[in-house]
Amino acid sequence: MTIAYIGLGSNLTEPQSQVERALGELDRLPHSRLIARSSLYRSAPVGYAAQPAFVNAVAALDTALAPQELLHQLQALEAAHQRARTFPNAPRTLDLDLLLFGDERIADAALVVPHPRMHERAFVLEPRTEIAPAAEIPGRGRAQALLEGCRGQKVERIP
Length: 159
Description:
By secondary structure, the protein is an alpha+beta fold.
């Protein structure tokens, strides 16, 4: 079993409901068990700014799936939520990113782990440090220290 961290985001079609539903679906993936989940957070879009704010969360999943199979399962969940990939950073019903897979480093055509931009995104680091305060990002350092470098990004916990 390996602990994988998944970033969740949505800004279309009742985003809070999309993320909450996806958290439950992660717990039902084959050979996997949800072991921690963050609160929900609201954040401004990155890249393409002319879209609604996002609802984000991070989940920890204990899984026996291989990283590529887990990615396939995450993409199937996105499809079940009618995720459309119209252009980079477009609005979306559900975005599931495989952030970390144990301490593994993976770089192939379909998957890069650790996620290549997680260390510079407060909407990932804030919920990640909520569920694992002493967390490290392989090759980058402590998530809490990296979060300090993202203080200009607006992220707020949803009550």
